[in-house]
Every structure is written in C-alpha cells, then in structure tokens.
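EI: anyone free to look at a 443-residue chain?
SC: sure, send it
EI:
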Amino acid sequence: MGTYLNLGNTGFEMIRNSLYVDKSELISFINSTINTAYKLTCVSRPRRFGKSFAAKMLCAYYDKSCDSRKLFQDLKIAGDKHFETHLNQYDVLYLDITWFISNVREIRTVVSSMQQKVIAELRKLYPNAGQEDTLPETLEKIHSLTGSRFIIIIDEWDALFREAKEDIVLHEEYIRLLRGLFKSSQTDRMIAAAYMTGILPIKKYGTQSALTDFREYTMISPKKLAAYTGFTESEVKMLCQEHHIDFQQVKKWYDGYSFRQLSSIYNPNSVIETIRNEEYGTYWTQTETYESLKIYIDMNEDGLKETIIQMLGGAKCPLDIGTFQNDMTSIKSKDDVLTLLIHLGYLAYDPENKSVYIPNEEIRQEFIRAVKSGKHREIARMIMTSDQLLEDTLCMNSEAVASAVEAVHSAGTAPLFYNNEQALRSVIRFAYISSVDEFWEIQ
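SC: here you go
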C-alpha cells in the first residue's frame, strides 16, 4: 500500500464501521464508463456532501493491492453482473489536492511538488519506469513496459483554483498537467477511467480545452448521479426509523435540494450529525465559517438585497445560470453570486422554473447570521425587530403592525413587483421571520 498509488481499503473500511448509507451503486455507473469514450467523470458538490467518501469507496473497489470483497459483499453493488469483473483489478492513483496544498511551504510549488512525490512512489513499484520529468510521461512509460492501465481518482481537484485565486501562472501549470493526463494522445492507452471531485464545475475554467472530455455532474445538473448527491428521502426515512429520530424535523432542517430526477435530496453530513447527537442544528454550516457566505451577499450586485429578503420569506426567485464562469473571481452580476452559492450548497436550484431558493432551515439560519453581521444593516434591523412585530400582532396593535409590514415591503420589493402576490407573501413571511417556524407554516 502506498501514499498515492494503491492506498488499499482502510479508508472505506473506517466508513463502513461508521453510520453508513449504501451508495455503492455509483460503482456500477463508473464500471459502465471504463475503457469507453465516457471514462472521464467529474462530480462537483459542496463541502461535506460525501465527495471523499465516494472517492475512498472507489479506491477500495478498484485497488488491486488489496482484497475488498468482504467490504462490498453485503452492499447493492454485489448484485451487479459486473461486480467481479472490475473488483480489485487496477492500479489506482489517488490524488488529494488539498493534502498536497497543505504540505508545501509555498502554494506556487504545489504542482511540481505533487508530480515529484507521485513519480517517486511510482518508481518504487515500477523501477524500470525511467527518469521522465512529468507524471503523464511516467504513466505512459509504465504502460509501455507493463501494459498496466490506471484508474485515477482526484479529490478536490479545484482546491488550487480556490486557494490561489489570482495565481494565473500556477493555474496554467496545473491545467498543463491535467491536459497531459486527460487530453493527450496517450490518455486512452494509460488510463482506464478517471473520477474527479470538486466544489465548482470545470467547463469554463481558463484554457478549458484541457478538460472538455470530462462528463460533468453538478448541483445544477447531476443527471444520472442525482441520487448520489446527498441522501434520498427514502434513505432518510429509513435512518430516522432505525434511530428513532423525528423525520418531519429532519426534513424541515436538511431537505430542500431538488433535481429533475429527484425532488428531495438531504444534506448528508447534517443528517448523520443529527442522528449521532440526537439534536437538530446547523451542523453542515459549522464546517466552514459563514464569512464565505457573507462576502458574497455583501456585494449587493444589482438587487441582491431584495432577492435575499424574498428568499428569506420563502420565495423562489428567477435565475439565469448561464453567465457564471465557474470560478470565484469573475463575479459580475447578482445571477453570478446566486449561481456560485448554489454550487457552494447555500442555495438550491429549481430547474423546472429556473429559480433559486433557500433549501432548508439550516441554511436559512446561516443567511440570517450572515446578514446580521454583514453590510446589509437595513435587512438586519428588520430581522431583529421581528420579535417586536410578533408582540404587536398578539397585542392587536394594528398601527404598529401595518407600519412594520410596510417598512419590509418598501425595503425588500422592487417597484415593478410591489403589488405582486408572491412578493406580498414573501414580505409577510420575512416580517415574521423570527417566529414563523414556531407558530405556523405557510405552504
């Protein structure tokens, strides 16, 4: 077992020993791509949505240095007719880009450092590989000598673009490496399949020709892989029944991601943490600071404030996803901000109505936190006066109630939509935002 080549199955064994939901049928999909024109797969999801779990599962299944039959024999994949065909049959190269970034003194050296470390390990197993300077050349030489074809798994492939947003020279060096691996005349000879994970899609990055052969599955369009984006409703119901957890509360807090293929996908990390802790709360949003959310909503690009108010009130707002450039630096409009937040998991997308919305209570609470501490003081004041509005309502102080609702309406609705029924509905929900979950649920 190595550090990058053939890691073994320990990572997946630890996952199996924990609270586990069977997502092994993903392997059937990857098996169907091996040695085909569709062998390059890229899955983008937010943090804590199971990307690394899937990568470790694939490593355990394909890695020829170990025997993983017992780990999979009780899972759904064991019933697949090709289960034995590909089980532990390949050299698997696993590259965790965040790990490489964390272990260099200067991030600008990460691409060269990564290649040096991986090549050094490859030469231990294949001493006749020679002294090639690049990773693609080394893999090609190994194939020429042995006939071995690799499965390459890259976890958090876009971490470098996120951690070194402005370093164009480093971006280009990294793209050259990826092009050498996945878009060269030797790719078909040395690579049986590849599986990349990331947060952002890849098709519009800089010199995009390096990666256009990848089939992408995103938070906006997961296609056949929708069921692997998070937990399905049936999986959550099963977990709640098994662990005696209130399903309706779990649905309120963590459901809300919707795709054409599946109308109800749950945040997997938060569901698991709720079961472990027997308490509902904002588990997923604790995995990274809300500052990242606050930065983007503070931009207030062309009416973002009004859109946030409407979404906090429960509305779905129109969205054009076509302008987003799939990075964190080319943000030029409100639609770009909202599309980015979908990929980060803070918003959900309705493909039928081409609209965006806050998916659940966990995310709604995070928006409220970010708004309260951000630049949108006007919205923050409205949120903080919601308790007073409730008191005035219960005391039947009609003048105070009318004044407060009018303030929200004027601040959060563009003149063109002032009398729009859905806008008025959102105004009421936003005005009572601190109490809506305790007292009623508007469908």
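EI: The chain is about 45% helix and 10% strand.
SC: 👍
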